[in-house]
Amino acid sequence: MFLFFGMRLLHPMKNRLIFVFTFTVGLVFSQNVEIRGKAAPVYAGKIIHLQVFQDFITNQRLNETSDTIDASGYFELTMHAGQTQPVILKIDNITAQLFVEPDFVYGITFPEIDSSMNRNRDVELPVNLGLMVNDSLELNNLIFDFEELYNRYFIPKDGQYLGRVAMFRRCDSLQVVSLRKYRDIKQTYFKNYVQYRIASANASLSRGEKFLLQNYITGRPIQYHHAGYMQFFNAFFKGYLARQSSKRQGESLYYIINTKADYPALLNFMRYDKELRSDSLRELILLRELWDYHFNSEFDPEAVKTLIVQLNRSTQITEHKVISQIMLAYMNKLKVGSQAPSFAALSKDNKLMQFSSLKKHWVYLNFFSTANIESLKEMPKIATLKKKMGDKVIFVSICLDDSVTNYRKFLRENPKYDWPIWYNNYPGIKVTAKDAYSVTGTEAYFLIDQLGNLVASPAISPSKGIEYKLNIIFRIKRKDTKTGLR
What we know:
Layout: E1 2-9, E2 19-24, E3 28-29, E4 33-39, E5 47-53, E6 61-68, E7 74-79, E8 85-91, E9 94-100, E10 104-110, E11 125-126, E12 130-131, H1 139-154, H2 164-181, H3 188-204, H4 209-216, H5 227-237, H6 240-245, H7 253-260, H8 263-270, H9 279-294, H10 301-314, H11 318-331, E13 344-346, E14 352-354, E15 362-368, H12 373-389, E16 393-399, H13 404-413, E17 421-423, H14 433-436, E18 444-448, E19 454-456, H15 466-473, E20 477-478, E21 484-485
Parallel strand pairs: 4-10, 9-11, 15-16, 16-17
Antiparallel strand pairs: 1-2, 1-12, 3-20, 4-7, 5-6, 5-8, 8-9, 10-12, 10-21, 13-14, 15-18, 18-19
Helix pairs in contact: 1-2, 1-3, 2-3, 3-5, 9-10, 9-11, 10-11
């Protein structure tokens, strides 16, 4: 069958274009976001990747799924999204951004780029997608509309120079006009996008720390998963610790990091700033700054890593634990695409097992402890996943208990858990699983392909949706030909 779409080019500097074309819709995967596209003929036979951001501090991206563009230019990409988020579509070094919402089907076009602009294939080159939907309230259309408004305020038609005071006035005017123009829009993500796009403009103009803090940070929830908020956050707090260091006496920032590598001392260092009253905000700023310091020659990378380990162990905030784990995975070379580390562990029947023996199989590796209630809640979910996936994936669990007695008791009490559940610590083991995977707590997850490469590092837990990732990999399909909201 054929579906018809109206398309608008997502280009802030060009007029809108609406036209209609057709393409065939086939089978899609069982996910709550689907992207059906038509690429320019030059891309036929190439692979298009759909990438998601692991977090907005490191901005590390994961290849969520991919498809080969057919001779007609058609492709399909599917994913699971727990919240509204930006994704990156990538063909070779050509990239495009799309904001996706849960339970939505998107029709897009991926345009050809002028070859004269693409001389350095090692550098990513962004293009603007065509979006095939005429709904003016769809998120990407709303963002497109706002960007047109934004450009009218900050890109003078006559090329005249605008001083800082004039730019401040334009920011304030844009804020007023936006509130009025979009007052009936219920899309929360979009409203925050507008607010923090204007906040970023103010930050780029050095509006003043107190003004920015009071208007956009203090008393407001941290929006970990909002790209616009986090872009402003990163820009505003870049160099924060260095600025604070210049204002106070006592132990220097470099001494606390490079010599002491003492996380509590670093957190206390920040408490001198009376404008920041939230420990959760202080902790996120530290994560942001430590990530930068890891690449800064003035700081010892091992000391920085030690501080992140301490933060990971002490934090009570789930998002901070996840971000710090992503940082540590990167710093410990557990990057996606690299070889998964091997290790030895004790099996249920008291044999010493080598993880390398599982090569040529997909492996979902998880770490747990009988003292960690949250990690224990994942075990029944793994049992369910094992039944669903059959022989497609081998599930391996590593018990991190200090006592082998507790490990054996757990096995006796859960005889239905019939996948490899191994014990981490045993005399004679040179490299434990916990050491090999730099696990700092008592819960972690990794997904490894049949070639022994890390596919997700860290991976998400069953309760967070690893099943959706596996559905993509193993092409679990269903029929659905509707577009727009499900």
